[in-house]
């Protein structure tokens, strides 16, 4: 497949503009105008794993504890925690001066309710929860875990970045974890302005004047989350050339995921900074719906994998320079302790003719394959179109649907057959940090109806994940289990790893305080 190109891109960028209300000079200086990675359609960071929703949540909510730049978990909303000598009791104490956006104090009961809702969807805490005998409030500022056995990974689960435990008022956190919340009341550095939210066009947050940040310097996602700007405005611009023009003319201040084709042009501008802000590579996957034909047949999934060459996918997103991407033919983040390719032989076949033969032997009988591609998300769209090309070349009955990202993340929840609005294949991406360990690797989870979209049911994967919790502290045992997990995932092939690429961001040179982090956050950023 050819990479997407922009004919006359330079002229287009010079001429294109974004229709937006003019801001007075003072107001513009106090507003950070952002082009986000995708449209914001869901506000609930428990209901969906969409990164754009998580980025929104980092503005609104706060965490009990958070990861610093080294990946270590540090106190955030809590002053700290105490662990009993036998490791069976963990007591957390909240900081003073924590207030929700509606003026109510943050209490321990809010934390307990938020943890209880979050843990029902989080794959990490889902593995640990059988060890929890009780989670209870002690007073307004203290709550306690009582455990059946020592669980040192508890603090890593509470402070993780992949699926953060955000704190909400108790009345909101009592919403069923499988139903979307409607209110966005948090205690974080910004307030969501729902009256100004227009999905598909824009979303706005205002500085939370009540917020009292920690006194430490910002460090990854830990430390002082200082709101240095009055407003954060996201504007949805689906055309990359128009986005580049808006950055060049100063109509926008920050572009989260610029198209790689346009980076050389923007690097030549004296007014723009093009840098790698995210700390980890961006890993792509192709996900199968294992509930419905034809991909309820593992042999058919493996046949498709035989035709995949990660390098073609990565060039489609990030160009020909191999410094911008890397093949990674396993389920764990490359260059981490668990990274391995045991059982990954199918991903090294890279041959369409052998894949066709395997497809025939698997008994494919012309069933329709519905592949949904997000036309407004260029990076994931490029991955999707590569798979669409493979499906066509294999002679499968493909229906390619182009949708916006918001529609895709809603439709991927459907378990219905394709004839009733279901799907067969979707694509997405994740940070490398989120795939390094079995307990946080969302795509690896294979617990049937409670698994991530596609709903694979592979009991051996789940058994190995639980074993890693027990034995993963021993490096040799952790490595053994990691290799067994890779082998099982490759045999079942409920998703295809597509390697990783580096995703820079772009911001105007007058934007100050930009720092590297494992997620896109906007505290500590201002404008000069």
Which blocks of ≥5 consecutive residues have pLDDT under 50?
1-22
DSSP helical segment count? 16
Per the principal axes of the C-alpha atoms, what is the gross shape? Answer: globular
Share of residues in strands? 15-25%
What percent of the residues sit in helical stretches (DSSP H or I)? 25-40%
Assign the structural class, choosing from mainly alpha, mainly beta, alpha/beta, alpha+beta, or little secondary structure. Answer: alpha+beta
Strand order of the largest sheet: 8-9-10-1-11-19-12
Task: Calculate the mean pLDDT score and round it.
Answer: 93
* Number of strand elements: 21
Sketch the major β-sheet.
7 strands, mixed
The end-to-end span amounts to: 43 Å
* Rg, nearest Å: 23 Å
What does this structure look like?
The structure is a single chain. With 528 residues, the protein is α+β, with helices and mostly antiparallel strands. Helices cover 28% and strands 19% of the residues. It contains 16 helices and 21 strands. The chain has helices at 9-15, 25-29, 51-60, 108-119, 123-128, 154-159, 170-173, 240-249, 263-267, 298-306, 310-318, 352-362, 378-393, 405-411, 459-471, 475-492; strands at residues 31-35, 65-67, 73-75, 78-83, 89-94, 132-137, 142-147, 190-192, 202-207, 231-235, 254-255, 272-275, 282-288, 325-326, 368-374, 397-403, 425-431, 495-501, 505-508, 511-512, 526-527. The strands form 6 sheets. Strands 8-9-10-1-11-19-12 form a 7-stranded mixed sheet. It has a 4-stranded antiparallel sheet with strand order 4-5-7-6, covered by helices on one side. The protein is globular. The two termini are 43 Å apart.
């Amino acid at each position: 497949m050819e990479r997407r190109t922009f004919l006359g891109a330079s002229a287009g960028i010079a001429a294109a503009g974004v229709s937006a209300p003019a801001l007075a000079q003072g107001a513009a200086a106090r507003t950070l105008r952002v082009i986000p990675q995708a449209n914001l359609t869901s506000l609930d960071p428990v209901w969906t794993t969409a990164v754009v929703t998580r980025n929104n949540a980092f503005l609104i909510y706060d965490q009990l504890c958070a990861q610093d730049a080294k990946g270590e978990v540090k106190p955030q909303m809590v002053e700290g925690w105490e662990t009993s000598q036998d490791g069976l009791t963990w007591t957390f104490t909240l900081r003073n001066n924590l207030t929700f956006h509606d003026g109510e104090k943050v209490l321990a009961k809010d934390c307990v309710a938020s943890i209880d809702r979050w843990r029902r969807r989080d794959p990490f805490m889902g593995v640990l929860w059988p060890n929890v005998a009780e989670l209870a409030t002690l007073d307004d500022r203290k709550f306690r875990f009582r455990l059946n056995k020592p669980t040192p990974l508890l603090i890593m689960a509470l402070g993780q970045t992949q699926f953060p435990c955000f704190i909400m008022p108790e009345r909101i956190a009592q919403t069923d974890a499988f139903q979307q919340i409607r209110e966005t009341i948090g205690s974080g550095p910004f307030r969501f302005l729902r009256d100004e939210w227009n999905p598909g066009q824009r979303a706005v947050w205002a500085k939370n004047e009540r917020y009292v940040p920690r006194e430490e310097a910002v460090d990854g996602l830990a430390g002082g989350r200082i709101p240095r700007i009055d407003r954060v405005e996201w504007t949805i611009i689906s055309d990359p050339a128009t986005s580049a023009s808006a950055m060049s003319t100063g109509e926008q201040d920050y572009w989260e995921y610029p198209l790689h084709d346009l980076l050389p042009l923007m690097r030549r501008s004296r007014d723009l900074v093009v840098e790698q802000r995210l700390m980890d590579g961006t890993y792509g996957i192709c996900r199968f719906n294992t509930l419905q034909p034809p991909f309820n047949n593992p042999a058919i999934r493996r046949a498709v994998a035989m035709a995949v060459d990660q390098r073609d996918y990565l060039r489609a997103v990030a160009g020909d320079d191999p410094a911008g991407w890397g093949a990674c033919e396993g389920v764990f983040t490359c260059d981490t302790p668990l990274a391995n390719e045991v059982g990954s032989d199918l991903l090294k076949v890279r041959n369409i003719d052998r894949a066709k033969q395997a497809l025939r032997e698997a008994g494919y009988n012309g069933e329709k394959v519905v592949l949904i591609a997000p036309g407004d998300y260029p990076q994931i769209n490029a991955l999707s179109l590569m798979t669409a090309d493979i499906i066509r070349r294999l002679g499968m009955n493909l229906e390619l649907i182009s949708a916006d990202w918001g529609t895709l993340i809603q439709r991927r929840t459907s378990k219905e057959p394709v004839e009733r609005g279901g799907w067969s294949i979707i694509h997405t991406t994740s940070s490398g940090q989120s795939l390094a360990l079995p307990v946080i690797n969302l795509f690896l989870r294979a617990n049937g109806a409670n698994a991530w979209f596609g709903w694979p049911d592979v009991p051996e994967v789940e058994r190995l994940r639980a074993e890693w919790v027990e034995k993963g502290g021993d490096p040799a045992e952790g490595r053994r289990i990691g290799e067994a997990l890779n082998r099982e995932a490759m045999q079942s092939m409920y998703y295809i790893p597509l390697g990783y690429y580096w995703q820079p961001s772009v911001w105007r040179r007058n934007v100050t305080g930009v720092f590297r982090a494992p997620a896109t956050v906007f505290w500590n950023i201002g404008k000069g």
